[in-house]
Amino acid sequence: MTDNLEKLLKDGADSARLRFGLGSAYFNQRQFLEAIPHLQACIAMDPNYTAAYKLLGKALLKTGDSVAAKVIFELGLPIAIASGDKQAEREISAFSLKLSRDETQP
């Protein structure tokens, strides 16, 4: 799947949707480091792409970067709320809460 999407990107079909697709495909293959730059590019192209914030935060958590994940979740939550994306709002809130709990535990 990633080969076809990478070919589209190489051929100049860059878009937020393509970048999210690549990030999602790499994430699902547990290639979190490869997913991150595509999800970042997705957000740069479309700052209202709420699913990208959620998935980028999760990918950052999988790589052990909880500080960056928290920042992404904090950026994405108000966007999810403003856009009415209840699913992203719930999931981002849940991940943020888990991160906050983890920070307070010794």
UniProtKB/TrEMBL annotation:
Keyword Transcription regulation: no
UniProt-listed Gene3D superfamilies: Tetratricopeptide repeat domain (1.25.40.10)
Keyword Coiled coil found: no
Keyword annotations: TPR repeat
InterPro entries in the cross-refs: TPR-like_helical_dom_sf, TPR_rpt
Cross-referenced SMART domains: TPR
TPR repeat intervals: 16-49
Short name of one Pfam family: TPR_19
Name of protein: Tetratricopeptide repeat protein
